[in-house]
Design brief:
Its main location: periplasm. By secondary structure, the chain is of the alpha/beta class. Helix content is about 45%, strand content about 15%. The radius of gyration is 23 Å and the shape is globular.
Length: about 325
């Protein structure tokens, strides 16, 4: 009897040893991500979630839209989020305030500005000189869209203060409505609003601020230094999943991509989604890997400096960690 009991006990022990690892493998680490807005500009992020790339790495993503750079950064700094998806300029602003736990950029999602110049009237042969003497409805002062917009205007020898009437006192959420209501000859808009306006005859896309302003770390994943040290493996997994999504987006057409991420944009028809995704792909807005290089970082600061919004120049190695991205890219 004792012999049988011992044999049964051994079998039971072996089963437990098998079951426990399986259960452990099934457990996923939750990563709280705060995105600055919900946008087709962030297509690779939604692909990574929907295609199961994060899940394959053993991660569960708790994604929240925090509507605005200030709110997104507040969520990160107050431990309301582990990782923030927001413009790199916010990490510079935080650094200038003397943070004891610096916010570090570790993976890049978009590498150009995402806005377009939309005219009220159809223009067959557009040139930037046409903005002189016009009323231009720009983005909020101090934000990256506005800084990139002014940088492009100056690049084309247009002084935003003297060569046109620049309107910047309208909230981001109301800019499109103001233009549709008759304010301005030109407006700087994100997608899909720009394409929707074009389809409805409310405006016409005549230029891209993204192609004009060059490569820069427009939207980046960042985390506090303490999190990167404490949860190093989690950050490595997160970055690997992002790299897989970036490659998948490069290898598939807009129709396939739109189908995958449609659950995140139920109020946008698939045809418009395809137009927007294709436009962003063609102008290289989606980063092809998560590496934020020094040239892009310096271009960002040049644009901020030109706009008078750069507190002080910060070296690439101080606020950027490319270790995770470089390993993922391999």
């Amino acid at each position: 009897m004792l012999k049988k009991w011992c044999k049964a006990g051994v079998i039971c022990l072996l089963l437990c040893m098998l079951i426990i690892p399986l259960g452990a493998c099934g457990k996923k680490d939750t990563v709280r991500v705060a995105e600055v807005t919900r946008s087709l500009f962030y297509t690779p992020q939604y692909v990574a979630i929907e295609k199961g790339f994060f899940e394959d790495e053993g991660l569960k993503i708790d994604l929240k839209t925090t509507a605005g750079g200030d709110k997104t950064m507040t969520a990160l700094l107050s431990d309301g989020a582990d990782i923030a998806l927001v413009g790199s300029e916010t990490s510079i602003y935080v650094q200038s305030q003397g943070s004891k736990d610096p916010v570090i950029n570790f993976a890049q999602l978009t590498q150009t500005d995402g806005t377009f110049l939309v005219s009220r009237e159809k223009i067959d042969n557009f040139n930037w000189e046409m903005l002189k003497g016009s009323t231009f409805l720009g983005q909020r002062k101090g934000g990256m869209p506005q800084m990139a917009g002014e940088y492009v205007l100056k690049k084309h020898d247009i002084d935003p203060k003297t060569d046109l009437t620049l309107i910047q006192n309208i909230d981001f959420a109301n800019i499109a409505t103001a233009f549709a209501s008759g304010t301005g000859d030109f407006v700087q808009l994100f997608e899909p609003t720009a394409s929707v306006f074009e389809k409805e005859g409310k405006g016409h896309i005549v230029a891209s601020f993204g192609t004009e302003s060059g490569h820069l770390p427009y939207t980046v994943y960042m985390a506090k230094t303490s999190y990167l040290k404490k949860d190093k493996e989690t950050v490595a997994k997160f970055t690997r999943a992002l790299q897989k999504a970036q490659k998948w987006v490069q290898d598939h057409d807009a129709a396939e991509i739109a189908k995958v991420i449609q659950p995140y944009f139920e109020d946008i028809n698939v045809e418009t989604m395809e137009t927007v995704i294709n436009r962003y792909k063609e102008q290289g807005s989606f980063a092809t890997d998560p590496i934020l290089d020094e040239e892009e970082w310096n271009n960002l600061q040049d644009i901020m400096d030109e706009a008078g919004e750069l507190p002080a120049r910060v070296s690439h190695d101080k606020l950027v960690n490319t270790d995770f991205a470089e390993k993922a890219a391999k």
